[in-house]
Specification:
By secondary structure, the chain is α/β, with parallel strands linked by helices. The chain contains 23 helices and 41 strands.
Length: 920
């Protein structure tokens, strides 16, 4: 491409034609030729006569200029002029390698970066250059292909939720060294990393390098911590600069189970500061609902921090079998438990009857031997629903008959009478130490201090199930901690006291670690490799580069030490990991992470991510040349005096009519018809209420997407219908939301509606009021429905029977919820002679489509999705709400399939399959 005066030309040699314009000027000036003068006496007879047709003896200069401009516009237009051209490496020759950092740091501006890459691919295609891609977070040998091929794949590129590692850079440099010479466009995410200079040197050995990098600062977020009753949030930035405020969002689920922002707090970077902190104090119930924190306006994994058990302080209820002795705090049965749990859990005191309605996470019973029937039954129900009961032995349990002959439902094992102690009947010669934890124990990997010894305990009775329930034992094999599952919960028994009377366990740090492993308490400090040594963690959900969580699928488990200390990468993706009842969030950024900006040598050109779009001017110039030539024709006719002759005037008028724009109404009608008939299209009636109309459009958009992905129907975007103006025959179905204030259609509109219903169309009337008045006059929407439907030719109706074809056109349904749940849906009544034949699961109904369906469940709200595909309206609570939304989609699919196929599923050929699905 050649650039002249800021405008590029794809065929600059055509501009040589401009040199011929002076010659053309002289030729045009010579036509017509000058007249020859001759004396002729008879000319006197012509004096006084007027000649209606005159010819100039010489072409006027302004007409010549007009023609010159027309020819010049043609020449310049054919030369391929382009506004905002950029002469960069994509316009060179030879292979072009596009290198991407491809990390989370570039996710926020990934769309902008993709636009620049697309522009470079366009230039490379124009220069017939092959292009290859090399992503440093996932280095693979590039395949050099046509730039047009890569443009079709550009949408599939996604940032990784980690930064390039040293191993990634080494691999990428090795790949670059094996390739033939090429030029490089490096799209940097703006963060420095180890090995960048080595990679740059490897690329410069193969050809020239240009860097594209945003000038915006990279902002990230460290994991949240909980201290002194408040959540501490820390934001980080790569480049210190002026003071700046960012908004930190706490996201989670509200009581209805819908994801939303639960709280926000501002954080301010002081001038020249790299970190900004903020405190967020929330009630325990609200704090437990938080699932993630993120920075407003930053769409990346680094700007998102996931929440695990470290933030969710568990509610632990403490109940002792006897009160502590006054003045002797260290002898209180709950003293050491309180000291171990107070920093990391919310402690609850009270009687068992008062505590259970509060639904705590854990209940600790310290030397509580027996419970009344009134206490035992609700406690068992609480455990079966997911609660954890932790019991500590003591003199009361040792002296009682609990779980002796038969296993008590609130004990994990049967116990021997009397217990065991130093110098007792079942005497030890000396206190026993703890044995190493087995790999099946939740305590596996914890180091056992040598000073932890046991001098007394209650002893478990030998039992076939005992071995599977022991999770900690003494050096002689005696069980120290046992556990069993009960429903969804579990019961844990420490065979020693919660005080230092029987063992030194409560005095050690091991006691606190055992509480954490049992998920009784949650550590607010960062995880470390030593604490997780010997454990395996399964990924539940992993985070992508944009900070969005997705199911982990079949990803393998991760060693606990690696989870705590290894860098994130393909083998350790950020997300939520589980081991037993514990949950740990592995975030991209840690408290120790330092964001450093990327720096480049002075000989490497660095450009921003803004590229002015190229604007081809050829079309405009060629159009201008046509207009100039038309003006030349009109001017020539005017100069010759023939412009106003009848035949010429008619031609000019006809020409003007051809270029006159069509009336707006005709254009709108044609465009409407084309849009409605290009694909199968769902339509809604425009009510004049903007929120309702927007919800109707979003609802039909969601239903159209569902049809596209689940059926062979591929609808276009939904269209709003004006009953007074638009044609209805293009649409198989109309969705008509009822509002109290919508105007009644005119007589002509009702005539169109009746023709539409008689020709096989279907109208879904939705009062959106949950049918609270049975479509009667007691409801404003019901009254309006009666008023609107009165002039329509509607057949007799009946509540939708269980054997109607709508219950099986695609899905087998018996309920038809929307935003509201209601079974009352009205359709055309079945013929009086419709009878069910023996052996048939349904009646033999007519072959037509019910012309109307009437309900009040607000289906559009349940179907509604935003442009990005996310649901717009919360439905129900939690999983039940999502199930309700799914049934609403299924009803919509059945409805559309009924409109398109009629009573096809009533044919007897489908009976065997339907009977099989119905289980009959």
């Amino acid at each position: 491409m050649t650039v002249l005066g800021g405008i590029g030309f794809s065929a600059p040699w055509l501009l040589l034609g401009l040199l011929a314009l002076p010659i053309l000027w002289l030729i045009l000036r010579a036509v017509p030729p000058a007249p020859i003068r001759r004396r002729f006496p008879g000319v006197a007879l012509l004096l006084g006569l007027k000649d209606s047709e005159t010819v100039s003896d010489r072409t006027p200069w302004w007409l010549l200029l007009l023609r010159m401009l027309a020819v010049a516009a043609i020449i310049i237009g054919l030369a391929g002029p382009i506004l905002n051209p950029e002469e960069q490496q994509a316009d060179g020759s030879g292979p072009l390698l596009i290198v991407l950092d491809g990390s989370w740091a570039g996710a926020t501006r990934w769309t902008q970066q993709a636009q620049v890459i697309d522009a470079q691919l366009t230039r490379a295609a124009r220069a017939n250059r092959t292009v290859g891609f090399l992503t440093l977070t996932r280095p693979e040998e590039p395949a050099f292909q046509s730039a047009d091929v890569w443009r079709t794949r550009l949408a599939g590129l996604r940032p990784a939720p980690w930064q390039p590692s040293v191993g990634n850079i080494t691999r990428a440099a090795e790949i670059a060294g094996t390739l033939e010479p090429f030029d490089t466009l490096w799209f940097s995410d703006g963060l420095g990393f180890d090995g960048r200079q080595d990679m740059l040197a490897a690329l410069q050995d193969r050809g020239s390098v240009e860097v594209y990098q945003t000038g915006a600062n990279v902002i990230a977020m460290a994991p949240a911590t909980y201290q002194d009753g408040a959540i501490t949030l820390t934001a980080k930035r790569a480049v210190a600069g002026t003071a700046r405020e960012v908004t930190l969002n706490a996201q989670g689920r509200d009581p209805a189970g819908n994801a939303r922002i639960l709280a926000t707090v501002p954080a301010t970077f002081d001038e020249s500061a790299l970190e900004a902190t903020a405190q967020l104090a929330l009630p325990a119930e609200l704090r437990a609902r938080i699932t993630r924190f993120d920075i407003a306006g930053q769409r990346s994994a680094g700007a998102t921090t996931l929440v695990d058990d470290g933030l969710r302080r568990r509610e632990v209820a403490l109940i002792a079998g006897r009160d502590g002795r006054e003045g002797l705090e260290l002898l209180s049965p709950l003293h050491y438990i309180e000291q171990a749990l107070a920093p990391t859990a919310d402690l609850i005191d009270g009687s068992l009857g008062d505590i259970l309605p509060a639904n705590p996470d854990v209940i600790v019973l310290a030397d509580v031997a027996t419970l009344s029937d009134a206490e035992q039954a609700p406690l068992i129900e609480w455990i079966e629903n997911g609660g954890m009961l932790v019991r500590f032995a003591g003199p009361r349990i040792a002296a009682s008959d609990i779980s002796r002959d038969t296993e008590d439902p609130l004990m994990p094992v049967r116990l021997r009478a009397g217990g065991r102690s130093v110098g007792g009947a079942m005497s030890w010669g000396e206190p026993k130490s703890l044995d190493a934890f087995r790999d099946s124990s939740p305590f596996f990997g914890l180091e056992v201090p040598s000073d932890v010894v046991v001098s007394a305990q209650v002893v478990a009775q030998p039992d076939p199930t005992l071995a599977n329930r022991v999770i900690a034992s003494l050096s002689d094999g005696t069980p120290l901690v046992t556990r069993k599952a009960l429903g969804q919960g579990q019961i844990v028994l420490f065979h020693v006291t919660a005080t230092a009377e029987w063992s030194t366990l409560p005095l050690s740090g091991l006691f606190v670690q055992m509480m954490e492993r049992l998920a009784i308490s949650s550590s607010s400090a960062s995880i470390n490799a030593q604490d997780l040594q010997g454990t395996t963690w399964t990924p539940l959900r992993v985070m992508d580069g944009f900070g969005l969580l997705e199911d982990a699928g079949n990803l393998p488990g991760v060693d606990g030490a690696d989870l705590a200390s290894a860098a994130t990468g393909p083998d350790l993706q950020p997300g939520i990991y589980a081991s037993g009842d514990r949950r740990i969030a592995r975030n991209v950024v840690t408290a120790q992470t330092v964001l450093s900006p990327a720096t480049w040598p002075s000989d490497v050109p660095v450009r921003g991510l803004f590229v002015a779009p190229e604007k081809p001017l050829a079309g405009w110039l060629l159009s201008l040349s046509i207009l100039l030539l038309l003006a030349d024709v009109v001017a020539s006719l005017a100069l010759s005096g023939r412009l106003l002759k009848r035949s010429n005037a008619a031609a000019v008028i006809l020409l003007g009519l051809l270029y006159m724009p069509a009336p707006a109404d005709a254009q709108d009608a044609d465009a409407f018809a084309l849009n409605a008939t290009a694909e199968m299209t769902l339509a809604y009636v425009v009510t004049g209420n903007s929120p309702v109309d927007e919800m109707s459009e979003a609802g039909l958009r969601g239903l159209s997407d569902t049809l596209f992905f689940r059926t062979s129907v591929e609808p276009a975007d939904p269209i709003g219908v004006d009953l007074e103006r638009d044609e209805l025959a293009f649409f198989p179905m109309l969705y008509w939301p009822i509002t109290p204030d919508q105007p009644r259609p005119s007589g002509d509109a009702y005539a169109k509606l009746n023709d539409y219903l008689r020709s096989g169309g279907l109208i879904l009337f939705d009062t959106r009021d949950a049918n609270i008045a049975g479509f009667g006059a007691a409801s404003p929407n019901g009254r309006k429905l009666q008023d609107l439907a009165a002039p329509l030719d509607i057949p007799p109706l009946e509540p939708l029977p269980s054997d109607h074809v709508l219950t099986r056109t695609f899905y087998l349904l018996q309920d038809f919820p929307g935003r509201h749940i209601g079974r009352d849906v009205w359709v055309e009544a079945a013929p009086p002679d419709a009878e069910q034949i023996e052996g048939m699961p349904f009646r033999n109904l007519n072959d037509g489509v019910t012309p109307v369906v009437i309900g009040g469940n607000d289906w559009a709200a349940a179907w509604a999705v935003a442009r990005g595909g996310a649901p717009m309206v919360p439905i129900g609570r939690g999983f039940a709400g999502e199930r309700q939304r799914e049934l609403a989609y299924r009803f919509g699919v059945n409805l559309v399939m009924h409109v398109l196929t009629g009573n096809y599923k009533s044919d007897q050929v489908h009976v065997p399959a339907l009977l099989d699905r119905l289980g009959q």
